[in-house]
Each structure stands twice: as structure tokens, then as C-alpha cells.
Design brief:
Number of helices: 8
Number of strands: 0
Strand content: under 5%
Length: 203
């Protein structure tokens, strides 16, 4: 199997998992519906992204054990809706509004920067130093972190924050460091690195 098949399966199932939790626990609160909308829509957008501007990194082949382990690892992202919906928590309007705003920023940064990278590299294989990557070298990862941060906030539990931190140190950070190392092949990278931030703009 390929890594993207496992990821796509998880993303595509999310809307059904969250809807199933809502039906099982008979929780049709505003917070539950908002969570379904945010996380479910993100999964659908990811599948569209895979069709329009896929990430070549996720095309790598993985064995059966890695596939199962990877799916279980990704499945930990479903703990946030489980906690929110099963606990029947009352979520304030302010928290819901904050989650929606953070999610919108995250989706914008994640998908738009990935699109810029994909279509730019199709035309010319060179260091991208403008647009979404003018001030930040990992804008797409920042966007993805904000997306899952919005889900964690909406869950009203510390556990999804721990899971997000785990993903950051185990998955995101190593990939960002690996990306920086791969970009050293460009002569202009040293200067570009000095004026850009790793994950946030330099002040």
C-alpha cells in the first residue's frame, strides 16, 4: 500500500465517524454539529487536494504492519470528537467562535501554500521564496497545526492537545527539519533561511 491511501482513508472516514458518534450518543448540540462541519469538511477538502495537487511525499509505499500502525496513529485524532460528543459537554459560544476562526486560518494557510508549492514546482524546480513562503519556510505545516488546534480547543479537553504535541514532535518537526536539509542544495537557501522563520515569521 501507499502512505496516501492510509491517510485518505482516515480523512474520508472522519465525517462518518463523527456523525456516528453524534447518533450513538444522541448528541446534536451546536458544538457537535460545528465539530462535524469543521473536521468533516477538512477531510473532504483533503481528498479534493489529493486529486488536484497531491503531495508526492505521501506516494511512498509502506508495508502492511506500517499501514495498520499508521492508521491507528491517525485514528488518535478521532479522540477529540469522541471526548466532546460522549461527554455531552457544554461549549461556550466564545470557544466555538475561536475554534472556527482558527480553523479557517489553518485551512487557508495549509491548502493555499501547498497549492503554491505544487504548481510552482511543476513549472520550475527551484527554491520558493515568495508568496506563502516569503516569511515562513513551513507555512503548510503551520496551517495543519492550526487546523488540529481548532479541533482540540473545541473538544474542551487537554488530551487532544497532548496528541497534537505528539504529532508535532514525532511527525511534523522531523519533516520540517528534513525539508530544511534538502533545501541546502540551493545556493540561495542560506540567505533565505536568515530572513525567514521556521514556523512563524521572524520579528
Amino acid at each position: 500500500m501507499k502512505l496516501n491511501q492510509i491517510i485518505n482513508l482516515h480523512k474520508g472516514l472522519t465525517v462518518f465517524v463523527v456523525a456516528g458518534l453524534m447518533m450513538f450518543y444522541q448528541n446534536y448540540s451546536i458544538a457537535a454539529w460545528v465539530y462535524l462541519s469543521l473536521h468533516g469538511t477538512y477531510g473532504i477538502l483533503w481528498l479534493l487536494k489529493e486529486k488536484i495537487f497531491p503531495d508526492p511525499y505521501f506516494k511512498e509505499k509502506i508495508n502492511f504492519i506500517t499501514s495498520i500502525t499508521g492508521f491507528i496513529f491517525l485514528g488518535s485524532y478521532w479522540i477529540a470528537p469522541f471526548i466532546l460528543i460522549s461527554s455531552q459537554k457544554s461549549v461556550s459560544s466564545a470557544v466555538i467562535a475561536a475554534s472556527i476562526s482558527i480553523n479557517i486560518f489553518g485551512v487557508f494557510l495549509h491548502f493555499a501554500s501547498d497549492a503554491q508549492k505544487y504548481f510552482t514546482l511543476r513549472i520550475q524546480k527551484d527554491l520558493i521564496t515568495d508568496g506563502f513562503f516569503k516569511k515562513i519556510r513551513n507555512t503548510n505545516y503551520l496551517g495543519e497545526i492550526l487546523i488540529y488546534l481548532s479541533f482540540a480547543i473545541l473538544s474542551m479537553s487537554y488530551i487532544p492537545f497532548v496528541i497534537l504535541a505528539l504529532f508535532f514532535f514525532v511527525v511534523f518537526l522531523p519533516r520540517m527539519i528534513k525539508k530544511d536539509k534538502s533545501l541546502t542544495k540551493y545556493s540561495s537557501f542560506k540567505e533565505y533561511k536568515q530572513i525567514t522563520g521556521f514556523l512563524f515569521p521572524k520579528i
